[in-house]
Every structure is written in C-alpha cells, then in structure tokens.
Amino acid sequence: MSDPVSPFPFPIRTECPPGACACERERVMADPQADHRPLALTRQQEQKLIERIERVTSYEDLKHVQELVRKNLGAELRIAPGPNEVRTVRGIIVVLEDKPGLCKKARQSVPAAVRRCLSERPEIAYALLDAHDLFGSP
What we know:
With 138 residues, the chain is mainly alpha-helical. The protein contains 5 helices and 2 strands. It is elongated.
C-alpha cells in the first residue's frame, strides 16, 4: 500500500480521529484558496514550538514568538491581562486563534506552554502587565 502524494510542498499534520477535533482539515485541503499554513503544524512542529516557547527569556522574546506564530501559521497568539484583577498567571488570557486547519490539541497545548513560561519567569508576566499599563506607567 503506497501513501498518497501530498499536494502541499510541506508535510501536513495527520488527520485527527473522527469526532476528536473540529479543525476542518479536509475542507481546508479541498479549497485551493484557503490559507494552508495551519496544516503545516505537524505534531513534531508543535513540539518544537512548545520547546521554543519554554525557552523564552524576556517579554520581547515572547512578542517575537507571537510574530513567528502569526507569520508561519497565520493564526494570532493573543496574550493579554484578563478583564478582572490579575493575581496569578491564570488571570492572563492566552489564546491561540481558532483557525480552519489548526488542530484543537495545538490550540490547547500552545497556550498551556505560554502559561508555564509565564509561571516560571514572573518578570515576563510583569513586563506584560506593564505593557498594558496595569502598573500605571507615567
């Protein structure tokens, strides 16, 4: 049995079990006008992204990772203080935009990696809060 040839110039994520994900992978693959970048996030690429997030050392570095996600996946990684008082990292909203072709597992694991990073390096969380004027910068 031979593997079908992929119409994409890059490896794509394997199909999720039926009912486990609502990534609309088949619809994205069938539409030649669709943004195919989210399909490039294979399980191995997802692991590399998580490792990169865990190596973040500053707020500027975190913003750079956000830009890389935007450029390579076409999805927005939003990190912002929540609407209520921020007492812990859980008060910071971290969301990987729901984009057709982007697996549900990735939309959960990437924000979890960001939260772990912010927990391990509180100075990044403080810089994030300061960038959103929560410390009342003059």
